[in-house]
Amino acid sequence: MGGGGGGRSLTPDELKSLEAAAKESLREGSGEGKSNVFISFATEDINEVNLLRAQAKNENTDIEFNDWSIQEPFDSKDAEYIKRGIREKIRQSSVTIVYLSNAAVKSKWVDWEIRESIRLGKGVIAMYQGDTRPTNLPAAIIEHKVKLVTWNHDQLQAAINKVSGN
Question: From residue 106, how far is each of 31, 127, 146 by CA, in Å?
């Protein structure tokens, strides 16, 4: 005996509408008030970024987000293929956090991710460590007047909430 069915096929417009609704649901997070965040960083800063990821998962901190950034580097030298993969991760996010460091300033990928996030209408925050605001910044941060915050849970969470509309 076959399974039910009996329904009609969806039109292309209906499929697009369903797909858009599903993507919006993903962007809104898990329903727990968490924002979906893409973290833009230079590969050299992976240890610091992993610490930030761990802090966001720790119930004893005031910072909460779902990490939609790249966990493993793409196994490719094809820049367009890599951009497509990164672009999809950014699309699934509502906020991009840029981890600022000397390596990030020099990274063409960090600058591209900032510009792509802005082009896709995502909120962008630049985060730095320490008490001294960096003066050497990626060009996209300067051009788009991206907000800078220190690595402080309260400040970062407030900035995430502000740019994501929470």
Answer: 37, 16, 17
Residue (of 120, 74, 117) closest to 98 by Cα position: 117
Counting Cα atoms < 13 Å in the Cβ hemisphere of 136 gives 7
What value does the mean pLDDT of the chain take? 80
Q: Is the distance from CB of 156 to CB of 63 less than 8 angstroms?
A: yes
Mean pLDDT of 41-54: 89
Helix (H) or strand (E) holding 159: helix 153-164
CA dist., res. 114 & res. 112, Å (int): 5
> What CATH number does domain 33-164 carry, 1.10.760.10, 3.40.50.300, 3.40.50.450, 3.90.1150.10?
3.40.50.450
- Residue, of 30 and 136, whose pLDDT is higher: 136
- Among the listed residues 154, 119, 149, 122, the one whose alpha carbon sits nearest the alpha carbon of residue 134: 149
- The model's pLDDT over 55-64, given as tens digits with 9 standing for 90+, comes to 887 766 656 6
Report the C-alpha gap between 47 and 90 in whole angstroms: 21
* Domain ranges across the chain: 33-164
Half-sphere exposure of 151 (CA within 13 A, CB side): 15
pTM for the whole thing?
A: 0.74
